[in-house]
Structure formats: C-alpha cells, structure tokens
Design brief:
By secondary structure, the chain is α/β, with parallel strands linked by helices. A hairpin with a 3-residue loop joins strand 14 and strand 15. The strands form five sheets. The protein has an eight-stranded parallel β-sheet. A six-stranded antiparallel β-sheet has the order 14-15-16-21-18-19. The chain has three domains: 326 residues, Glycosidases (TIM Barrel, Alpha-Beta Barrel), CATH 3.20.20.80; 49 residues, no CATH class; 74 residues, Sandwich (Immunoglobulin-like). The protein is globular and about 80 Å long.
Length: 455
C-alpha cells in the first residue's frame, strides 16, 4: 500500500488557472503561482489528497516546449515560489506531482540553441532524433529534425542517447532535492522509448520512497506501460470515453464492458493495473460540455452519476480544476484550440460559490468517502446489476462491501442486488437492512453509494 493507492487527485494547468500571458518574454519573474495558495484549502475540502500540476518549467508558450527543466516558468515565479507551493501542500498532507515533458524540448532549450549555432560541430547534435543537415524546417534553420506530431516547435529528444538519459535522470533528482516533489506525470508516454522509461523507474525507486510515475497514454494495452518495470499507472482514456458516451447513449453496457476489459488487462486483479481515471483534463472538453441531457435548471443531468462512477470504479480518481463547479469548455479553432479548456480562475470570485455549490458539495462527499473507505481503493470489483440505464456493482475488501448504484433514466427506478447487513446511503443518509438482497429506489439521473454499517 502506497500513498497513491488511496489518492484523489486535483489537476491544475497553472499557466491557464493563473491567467499567465500566452507568450513568455523571459523577463522578470511574476509570482502568479502564489495565486493558487488559497485554493489548497478548497482542494482539501473537496477530499483531494494529491495535486497533479503542470507544465511548470520555463517555456515560451503553452508550457510543453521546455526551455529550462530546472527553472520555474518566469510567468509563474521563481524556484522559491514553487518550493513554497509544494511545502504548503505537504503541510496540508497533499502530495504533489509535476508534469515531466521529456519526449521533446522547445527550440530555446540550451542543447537546441547550440545545435542551431554550431550545426555539424554541435556536441548536442545527437541529443535529437533524425537531425538532417541537408534538410530544412518551417523555421528555415537549414536543417531538419524529428518533431512531435508535426510541430517544429517541439523537437524530439533522442531517448536512446546515454547523455540525454543521464540529463533527464538528473532533472528528476533535482526536482526531488529542490522541490520535494512526490512523482511525475510523463507527457506523451505513449511515444516514449520503453528502455528510457525503465531507467526512469529505476531512478524513481532510488530517489524517494513511493515516488510515483504516471504516463499519458491514449490508446492501447495499458499493461505494456503500467507494470513493475516501467510506470506505476497511466491515464485511463478508455474509461474517460466510456463514461460520457455511455451516459449520453443510455448505454451502461459500454461502461461496464470497458471496466471488465481493463480489469482483465490487469490479470483480473485490482493490483494488476491501477489506472488514473478522469472525466476531463487540459486536452479534452469539459465533462459539463460533453454530457448532452440537461436538467430543469439547464445543468448536465448526468454530472453526479458520472462522478459517482469516477470515484467508485477501480482506479485513481482525478478532478480537473474548475470542473467541480460544472464549468463548461469546448475546444476552439486553430492555434487557440485548447485555450477554452484552460481558463483563469480567480479564487476570490469562486470562494463563496464553493460554500454552497451543489456540485462542489457532492464531489466533497465523494472525495471524503473515497478516503474513508478502503473498499474504494483496494476493493475487488464485482458487477451486480446491469441494464442499458441502470448499473450496480460492489467493491469488496476484507469481507466488507460498498455497493454502488447509478441510474441514467429520467425516471426513478428500483434496483435489487444480493447483499446482507445494514447499509447507509452516502448521499441520502437513508438506512437499509439487507437480508439476502438490498432493494433501493434510485432517482432519475442519480445514484447512491451504500456504505456498510461498521459494527
């Protein structure tokens, strides 16, 4: 058992949340990261005990074109600003993981600047992939190179070069020594070299107890990345898609089938594959925008049941900043595609709403239940009831079972599942006695978590 096995994450894109300029002039640092300090109490009240924040380090634009891995982005402050932020989180028993952008660098990174200046004579020419001095690129450098997804701004590192491997490992050691970070989310892990990731895991095992490595992987057999030799976890895009499309299509079979397939991927053992679950993030549209059906107030009808599933299905739940308020966000066009997904949130404008917002209150219930009940972190998963519009399952740990029921029909329904003992509804507070079966009415577009009465 490690801290991340019981984690509930809050995901922050700091350049967006603090309203930083879109372009970095590398000028005098502005300590915008301090604007996030008041949010720590809110994050803790949500029941979150971990923060994934990034990208953080010096870059020219959106943060993924790194200029300096050892310097906080000037738009956010100085290294002391970041040290203080992590320290304040740790003071509240909140772990912190950084974004590790190790697949590529920006063009202002020292090795690439040397390559531009010295060309064939650069000692860093082998730090990058497929450098061709007979070619050219969109910046008219007079040479070409491999980039990330067609973006010449993002120059692909040669992860098989021992100097590159050593440099990145030193960066990770620096982050631990300088900032006391608790783990790293590896950007674009689905295109990272496997041997490179094995070396990162070896370093992670050395530098800090329970140092967590989580990778961004979109498609594929997740166990190829998340295993004892490489990463502890990866992003669960399979479940992300199933949650909103299964709800929109009134098809809980899609969600249940996805869970079963992922469970089998891990060898039908909970510890076999523990994934990072989410409904939205800085790259995909907000869940409030993706859920089609609206309630009488114009809010997404499925918001609460989808989040009940997020917090109770196998995996590590994560909330993207602002989505606890049900804010919307759809992708834009052209170069500003992702900007609507990464808005500025000023704490003073949201702190009062946080006290009474129904979504915040519901997610706080979910977050705190997840922390309190070991079943939701370590419990085996068992499907109990499934139709296109109703879904029930149990999470069982040490002979104690938490039972989850959700309903995506507009009308109330009755769900009956095998169970024994006394249970209390986490949301309703209703008490039910089960002798062989638990029978409960679940409201339309709603759900309940039945907690066994501890004796």
């Amino acid at each position: 058992m490690a801290w991340y096995d019981e984690a509930v994450f809050y995901h922050i894109y700091p350049l967006g949340m603090t309203g930083a300029p879109k372009q970095n002039d590398y000028g005098t640092p502005v300590e915008r990261l301090n604007e996030l300090l008041p949010w720590i109490t809110h994050i803790k009240n949500l029941g979150c005990n971990a923060i994934y924040i990034g990208p953080l380090f010096e870059s020219v634009g959106h943060g993924y074109e790194t200029t300096d891995y050892k310097k906080l982005d000037s738009r956010l402050g100085t290294n002391e600003t970041l040290k203080n932020f992590v320290s304040e989180c740790h003071r509240e028993n909140i772990r912190v993981i950084f974004d590790g952008v190790f697949n590529h660098t920006g063009r202002d990174f020292f090795a690439f600047r040397d390559l531009k200046e010295n060309r064939e004579n650069s000692r860093y020419k082998d730090w990058y992939c497929n450098v061709n001095f007979w070619g050219n690129n969109s910046y008219n450098d007079g040479f070409s190179y491999e980039n990330w997804r067609g973006h010449d701004l993002l120059v692909k590192l040669n992860q098989r070069n021992p100097e590159v491997i050593g440099y990145i490992c030193d960066v990770i050691r620096f982050w631990v020594e300088e900032f006391d970070v608790d783990g790293i989310r590896l950007d674009a892990a689905d295109v990272l070299d496997f041997d490179f990731m094995k070396e990162l895991r070896r370093v992670a095992n050395e530098i800090k107890p329970e140092f967590w490595l989580m990778g961004e992987v979109i498609h594929g057999d997740y166990i190829r990345w998340a295993n004892a030799d490489m990463l502890h976890s990866v992003t669960n895009y399979h479940l992300h898609k199933a949650l909103y499309s299964g709800y929109n299509d009134h098809n809980f079979f899609e969600i249940a089938h996805t869970v079963k397939r992922l469970y089998e991927m891990g060898g039908n053992r909970l510890e076999g594959l523990k994934l990072y679950n989410f409904t939205d993030n800085h790259d995909v549209e907000r869940i409030a925008s993706k859920l089609n059906a609206k309630d009488s107030e114009g809010k997404p009808a499925g918001f609460i049941p989808v989040h009940i599933l997020l917090y109770t299905l196998p995996g590590i739940p994560s909330v993207y900043y602002g989505s606890e308020f049900g804010i919307e966000g759809k992708k834009g066009h052209g170069a500003e595609t992702d900007e609507p997904l990464r808005p500025e949130l000023v704490y003073e404008k949201w702190k009062e709403r946080a006290k009474s917002d129904s979504y915040v209150q519901s997610l706080s219930v979910l977050g705190n239940i997840h922390k309190q009940r070991k079943e939701l972190s370590y419990g085996e998963y068992r499907e109990l009831f499934l139709t296109t519009r109703q879904y029930a399952f149990a999470r069982t740990y040490q002979d104690s079972a938490v039972i989850i029921m959700v309903n995506n029909d507009d009308n109330a329904c009755t769900i009956q599942v095998p169970a024994n003992g006394e249970y209390t509804g986490a949301f309703s507070g209703k008490k039910i006695s089960a002798s062989g079966s638990l029978l409960a009415e679940i409201g339309g577009n709603s759900g309940e978590i039945w907690i066994p009465t501890d004796k």
